[in-house]
User: What shape does this take?
Amino acid sequence: MGSKQKCAICSTEVEMVFNPMKEWSIDGVLCGDCYSKKLGEFYPGDHIRVNKKED
Ligand SMILES: [Zn+2]
Assistant: This one.
């Protein structure tokens, strides 16, 4: 097996990688946590709106 990839956001080594959506402008792959977090930022609730929150 090759080396593990790192999450583009939190730099954690991830086995199960998620590909970010194009509109997220993220270069690389994401871990599950960051992926769901991003999803929540871009699609909060039922409304599709861009509402960026910086932690
Ligand atoms: Zn992450």
